[in-house]
Write a structure and sequence with these properties.
binds zinc ion, 285 residues, 10 helices, alpha/beta, two-stranded antiparallel ribbon
Amino acid sequence: MSDTLRLMCILAHPDDESLGTGGILAHYAAQGITTFLVTATRGERGWPGDAATYPGHRELGRIREVELRAAAEVLGLHEVVLLDYQDGELDRANAAEVIGQLVAHIRRVRPNVVVTFDPNGVYGHPDHIAIAQFATAAIVAAADPSYAAPRAFASHRVAKLYYLAPSHKLLAAYQEAFGDLVMSIDGIERRAAGWDTWAITTQIDTLAHWQQVWQAVSCHQTQLPMYQKLRELSDEHHRHLWGTQTFYRAFSLVNSGRTIERDLFEGLHRPADANEVATAQKVIH
Ligand SMILES: [Zn+2]
């Protein structure tokens, strides 16, 4: 039986979806795949502007949610869920509670493919690391019928889990545009490491959507002081930033091997034609 394929990204902050996964979200939405986003926090501490004009946690959280929903619209996302955790404190949240919430969403949506951060959180961001761990745990728990989530849905087995795996080269291009991705945690400096190309399992060509991704990034107006240089970049630099996305296939129940994947859904049945997609979509809604 055919079914519409579903992709779910589980991330930490508004703007992670555009900067981290904008390319694949636009790419797969254009192919008729239903895309979902779970964002753990409202990013209410992310204020790169003048400290004197900081609008406060609650107001900035509200503004960033509006920005996130605008970006989601640009990327063709089917649904955005915010979990309401505190920005910057995700690794101190109650793990069982976060995992329970994620399990409920995974069981409700029944994604075939889930994408989250890599174990280093790209540049050691504790929220990114925490959400990657919670998402991974939630996928295991969601498939276990004996695990009781806060809302009752049937258990669901995710077929493939991916971690964001930006190459050294891509991170160099990012840092050229954004400045150094670096943060100091517990007195120790954390920097963006990037992935060796041999460790990357999956490369998706998203070049056709680079302008859409850039438009989604631009929806995050409060963050634009950080992206100032982005506006001055050449089209060619933008194409490089948003034109390819790379991942590490953390597990797959449907395929394997060393050949670089060009599709996150490789190994899964794709509806053969538009009619089949339309029929399958009716089943979901
Ligand atoms: Zn983030």
